[in-house]
Structures are given as structure tokens and as C-alpha cells.
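User: Hi! I'm working on a homework problem where we have to compare a predicted structure to a textbook description. Could you give me the structure for the chain below?
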Amino acid sequence: MSKFAFYALVLQCVFTGLLLAEDVRSQTSSIEEIFVNLSMEDATLKDVFNDLEKQTQFSFSYNQGIIDLTEKVSVSSNESLGDLLRQLAKETKLNFKRIDGNIYVSKRKMLQSSVTETINKNEVFQERTITGTVTSAEDNSGLPGVSVIVEGTSVGTVTDIEGAYTLGVPNNSTLVFSYVGFVSEEVVVGNQSVVNIVLTPDLTQLEEIVVVGYGTVKKSDLTGSVSSVKSEELTAYPALGTVQALQGRAAGVQITSNNGEPGASFKVRVRGGTSINASSDPIYVVDGFVGAALPPPEDIESIEVLKDASATAIYGSRGANGVIMVTTKRGKKGKTNIDFNASYSLQNEINRLDLLNKQQFTEYIQDTNPDFTALDGNTDWQDEIFQTGNIQNYQLGISGGTDNVNYYLSGTVYDQKGIIMNSGFKRYSVTSNIDIQASDRFKFGLNLFARRTAQEGSRTQEASGGANGSGVVAAAFKMGPDQPIKDANGNYTLARLSDAHDNAVAVATEYINETVTDRFQGNLFAEYDILNDLKFRITLGASTDNRRNGEYVPTTLQGGVGVGGDGRMNGNKNTILLNENFLTYSKSFGDHDLTVMGGYSYQSSRSENWGGRSQSFPTDAGLYWNLGTGSVFQRPSSGLSEWELSSWYGRVNYSFNSKYLVTFNARYDGSSVFSEGKKWAFFPSGALAWNMKEEAFMSSVNAISNWKWRVSYGMTGNRAIGPFQTLA
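Assistant: Happy to help. Predicted C-alpha cells:
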């Protein structure tokens, strides 16, 4: 990590720590603090809501299939918005619930209430009166319209606009509190006369927002094929990294490990292999940074996988293999939250082979070779190379915020001890996000990520170099149980029934292969609301990746004894710079919703690599750190590669009545890696979707109420993809 990167990270961590004590008064007005002047006779609900939206900062949200917007009301108020809503609630039997800048309108349920209720045919309980308040865990505000039911009966009521309720219940009863979008709660009344309850949001029931290229969209309004995975799924079990945590959790994404050693890489395929002679790996986008390193699963809020052409064409030539978009966790307004997660797990090999012991092995060989004489060893080679591995994972996160500043700071330590001797992997990382609302129209933020990984590699795979490239596991199966680990002279024994290769313990303990990688990346963004419906966003990103690998084959192994030891050192450095600039216009008028996005992107990459190798060392003590002492120098290596990418891109999303959806994406890429004379290429895509669940004739067909039909066609990379037709 460079000094500049280190100082930048330290300064932000200090700044974040200072913010923990900051307490800025909320500037978001409540419905009791906003006064409205409204006098309407025999007006429709829709007209009333439209007028209130013009006078206040709130937007009214409702389901047109449930709420009758043509219902006539007469209202006259020169008081607070809260008083007016209470007046409307009494006149229309509607419920109003405020969440941030939205007021959600729902139909009030009318429930039967009686003095006594027969719960058991043989027993009638005496009534008692219970009062209380139901609030939201998000902002401690009262929840109107919450159903309060006596379990096993039809006795119940609903909370008023302040979240208060009064209910006559039998003794020894249980109350069930339920509300759409929140987790239901059950409370045993006992001797209580006041029962207050706090409901927590049920994220699985809320309208899900998914991240797409250069923006977000409601999942119900998607026209492309996108899989979404949330943080709870990613942290269900300890994982080497985010890619492994994603394994088996996104439809259409195949993730397989290249081998089982700690720190091994994974192969990711979206829609299968898509290239014959080039990479089929998808691109990764972290908080808008294309090509960024993935943070630990504990620091991720959600992952979206863009799969079809309609979704991926916004990334042009690089989207042919799919796009994996990562959104990291961010601070939220409220008290400081301190989260600590720890896990410890054990690992053992599976399907251990049942091999012959010394006596059985000797008898077996002597059946075909009577002259065979067993040695004086009695070695279970699997016991010698295998060990009980373990995984330790610790994460400490601090988050919080005020009206103006939100912060998130997290540190993670991952330590894996492999099931093969002298194999292991360690990862240390820090993630820090700060969001600052400088004014009503301007906000900016900074995302920083630093990581160090250290891998202690073991030769788990058999090389192609004959006896000099024996793998640990393969060598264990080729060694006779009669052979000791070392002979009488203290030298490692060699296989005698096949090639004279090293024994498994020698390969596991003597061969040195260590890799250390440092990654630092920063992403600065700023967003300005030019108009109420038009905003501009700029992103500046930079990352640097430094990797060093050292390998040494000592004279105690066959690969080193003939050359006096073999050491090598390889390193590489990769630097990426990114600039994104785009405008987004969103407008709703009547039954129409239109979003137009357009922008320009520039990205550059510089990759350097170098290496040296030497043989014939006077001693094995220096390993690969003293290549100059070797008397036989091998040819050194070095290299440099650079590329640049300049792009114009745009997208149009149109929705009519949330039923009929149209999306058009286009990107014009200019790349230095394109062939001469063809440096620029155009990548368009389009998609149509029909939300059948919004149709009136679907209201009674619950089994298929979530079906959506869509067709998409587009071009990514150098080929056309589509059309796709799906019913999901």
C-alpha cells in the first residue's frame, strides 16, 4: 500500500471516529409541524392527495386496485397535516402511515369485537381492557392500521393514526400484532393492562429495490434478467470471499472452485461459457466502480447479477459475460450501531481412502514378487499429511449518522488453516463509507477499501514435471506403508514402487510457496439535483493492486537437489483509474413514468510485472529472499501492458400504469484493445415487459399473481444475444 493511500485511509478513519459523537438536530419536519391550508367540497381523494403533495414535502403512495380514488370527501383545514389526515381517516376509513418522505395509504380492516369470546367450548373467560401503542423500529413513530387480534379468536381491533389501541380481551390470552411489511409479534397478556409493542420491518415483504447499471429500479419494474442476493444470505456461513458466498444463491450463475486449497480462486460463469479464446469471467462493479475488488461478505448490502443483454448492454463490450454489481453497507440516521460477528468452524477431509496397512501391503506385493522385503517403517501417509483445519472469521462494524452525515466503518479478519500440513490463508480488510448531505440539493461521499491477503501454498495439485513435481496428496497414495518418513541417515525417503519421487511429508513441509497481495481502492462521488427531476452524478475512482509471490524448492526435494536449490520471485502491480459522469431525469405524470439516463465514462489500466530466478545456493536458509547468492542465474522477466476505454452510454425506461414496461440501452465504446480501424463499436439492447399481476383479471388468480412476461434483444461484446422470452 502506498504512503498516500495509507494516510488517506487513516484520515478517513479518524474523521469517521469524530462523527460518532456528533448529534445534529433532525431537519425532517413531522406531519405535526407542517401546516396546510385546504378547503375542498365534494372533491375526489385523488384531488385531495395531489393538492397536499403540492403544499408539503410528502408523496402519497397507494394501490389503485384497493383505494377508490374517486371517493368524494369534503375537507377544510388550516391546521397541521396530522390533523387533516386524522380527519380524512375518520371520514373515509383509511389508514395513513408516514415513512420518511412518503405517506402510505391503506384500507382499514373492520374487525369484530365482543365483550366475551368462547375460546374453548367448555370455558368462557372474563374480559379485561388492554391499551397500548404500536411503533416502528425504524423511527419510533406510531403505526396506524396495525391489526391487534386475540390469538385463536376473531376478537380484535386496529390502531389509530398515532398507533394507539384499546381492546377488551379475555384473561390469560395472547395478542397477535400484524401489519403489512412488518414481522408479526405475539405477546402473552398475563396481568398486564398496558401492552406496548415495537414492530420491525419484514424486508422480504417490502417492495424490493435492485441495482442496475448507473441507477436503481423496483424489482417489479425490471425488464431484464437480474438475480438479487441480500446480505443475510451472503453471511449465512463463513466464506473465503464474496464469490464463494454467492455460490448456489443466484439462478443462472455457476461458481466452481479451481481446487480446494485455502485462498484458491473460483471460476464464475453467467449463462455458461461465452468465449472460445478469451476470458468468460464477468465484470465486477462495486458501488459504481467497474473492475473494483470485492469486499468481504460482511460488508455487502446486496449483490445483483445482470444476466441478459437488456441488463448488461449498458456496460457495452465488457458486459458479454454478465455483470455482478455489489452495493456495500452504508450508515443510517440514528444512534451509533456497533456490530461484532465471530465464527469458528472445523474442517476435515471427506472420503478418506481405506488403504492397506504394512502387513496387508507386504502380503499383497509378495503375491506377485516373493523377493519383496518390507522396510522397518509403519506409516499411515494420510495421517501424516492431513490435519484438522479450521476457519476463524471476525468482523467489527460501526455505523450511524445524522441528518447530514452517515458513516460506516468495518474491519474483518479471516484466518483459514488448511487440512493439509503447512497450507493456510489469511485476509485482513478495512471498509469505510461516508455520505455527506451538504445541502438540500448537493451530496457527496467517499468509499475506501484496503485489504491484505497472505497465502501459504501447498503443492496440492500434481505437476507435469515427473518425479520433481509430486503433489502432496498424490505422493501419499504412491508411498508404501512400510516406508518411514526419514531413513536412518535423516534423509527423506523416496518412493520405490514407482518413480523415485518425494514422499508426501517432504513435499508438504519443505516446499515453500508464499503469496502476499495488497489492494487499496477509493471511490469519490458527488451528486447535484439540478432540478427536482434532474440530477447529475460524478464518480472518481482509483485502485492499486500489488502482488508478490515467492517460491523455493530446497535441496531436500528432488526438484532442488540436482540444481542446488531453486528460488524465484515474481511481482506485479496493477493501477486502474475511472471517471463516470451521467445525468438522470425521472418524471411521473398521470399513469406514465419516464426515466432517462445518459453519460460519459473514461477508464484506464496499467499493469506491470517482473520476476527473477536463481539456482545453486550455498544454503537453503535464505529461501527466495536471497537470489543474489545463487551461482546460476536464470533469465529475468518483466512486462508492461496498458489499455484505455472511453464510452458514451444511455438508457430510457418507460412504464405505463405499472403494467407495460419498455427499456432501451445503448453504449458506444472506444477501446485501445480493439483492432486498428475499428476502435469504436455500438452496443444496443431493448426489452419489453408486461406485469400481468397489475391487470384486473388477475386479482382472483393468486397462484400466478406475480407472473411477468418479457422479451429482450441486445448486443454485448461482439455478438447478438436474444431474443429472450420469459414468464417469471
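For your comparison, note the following. The longest helix spans residues 3-19. Confidence is low (pLDDT under 50) at residues 3-28, 110-126, 699-705, 718-728. Good luck with the assignment!
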